[in-house]
TrEMBL record:
Lineage: Bacteria, Pseudomonadati, Pseudomonadota, Gammaproteobacteria, Pseudomonadales
PANTHER family the UniProt entry points to: HTH-TYPE TRANSCRIPTIONAL REGULATOR RUTR, HTH-TYPE TRANSCRIPTIONAL REGULATOR UIDR
InterPro entries: Homeodomain-like_sf, HTH-type_TetR-like_transc_reg, HTH_TetR, TetR
HTH tetR-type domain mapped to chain residues: 5-65
Swiss-Prot/TrEMBL keywords: DNA-binding
Annotated organism of origin: Pseudomonas benzenivorans
DNA-binding region, residues: 28-47
One Pfam family here: TetR
Full protein name: TetR/AcrR family transcriptional regulator
SUPFAM superfamilies noted in UniProt: Homeodomain-like
Amino acid sequence: MPPALKTRERIVLASLELFNDQGERAVTTNHIAAHLGISPGNLYYHFRNKQAIIAELFEQYERQVDAFLRLPEGRALTLADKPRYLEALLAAMWQFRFLHRDLEHLLDSDAGLAVRYRSFAQRCLHNAQAIYQGFVDAGILLMGPAQIEALALNAWIIMSSWVRFLGTAGNPAGDLSEDMLRRGIYQVLALEDGYIAPSARSAVEELHRKLFVPLVQVF
């Protein structure tokens, strides 16, 4: 691997670590360079500013979500797919939690990123509807098109605002844990409760128990 590419990757990984731990607003390019033991000029050789680093990290997040938020090829959905989707979503949210912590500020600061995010959000909603339809086709959920659309939208609203809710409602310091994000995933699963087919009820309830985190552990 060429040295320049290696340095670029180190910058991206260090930025993700610092943004997640301290919050994007508290971290400057000088902080990132100092953390890596390189000069600011070396960092700017690879990224012209902090927004360019954030754009690179968002692209990684976008690719990760696109990779799992889709129907499997060549087969129908099964109950085993439900925890796979939810755990993949939890992993992506945790790995790139800084994006969820201060999303509005990030989009206000970069018009190009805001355009990309709108496209990403629309794609996620479309794919989520296809997945819910797949669970309906598999006999796991019982709902019609309007209910599928509403469920996908409500799930997106929860997932895109959950970290902000934690900060305003019970976690003003902004510290996050996997349990806090896991409760957000549980909230999405709870939206489906009235639509679960009787044959799938016991398996889904077991998934509920796995994801449930008491609010006292969240706040």
